[in-house]
Specification:
Layout lengths: L2 E7 L5 H9 L7 E4 L9 E6 L21 E6 L2 H8 L8 H9 L3 E7 L4 H10 L3 E5 L1
Antiparallel strand pairs: 1-5, 1-6, 2-5, 3-4
Length: 136
């Protein structure tokens, strides 16, 4: 059974982690980095009509999207982000935490280990100062 070790990189730089993995006798080939610059994530910003449900005016005669003046910005995650994080065996209950970290500019770093190497991988993540190191 494979195990996945995850951590958060504040700046997305995994140079220290690659060196720590090498020092532990592990290959960096199983290392994955997911961040907001990853074109496969397809982050999208869209405008949300703040008066959509109220009709856009106090008289109730407004047409959403046509008569309202006030609009706010909203953020939508694409399905590919959830799929990609889900591929890391992260429990569904924690996916939003990882997605929010990406939205805040952090990178999710993951390594596919095995039972013999998982402790060394976890130690390498910690020695490279990754945040919130977890094993799934």
């Amino acid at each position: 059974m494979g195990l996945v070790v995850t951590g958060l990189s504040p700046k997305g730089d995994v140079t220290a982690l690659k060196a720590a993995l090498h020092d532990a006798g592990l290959s960096a080939d199983d290392l994955q980095v997911i961040n907001s610059d990853d074109s496969s994530l397809d982050f999208r910003r869209t405008t949300i009509d703040s008066d959509m449900f109220s009709g856009g005016s106090s008289t109730g005669t407004g047409v959403p999207g046509l008569t309202n003046v006030h609009q706010s910005r909203g953020f939508f995650r694409s399905e590919s982000l959830t799929d990609r994080l889900g591929d890391l065996d992260i429990p569904e209950s924690e996916l939003d935490n990882y997605a929010e970290a990406i939205e805040r500019g952090r990178s999710v770093v993951a390594y596919f280990a095995n039972a013999a190497s998982v402790d060394r991988v976890e130690a390498a993540f910690r020695s490279a100062n990754l945040l919130n190191v977890r094993r799934y």
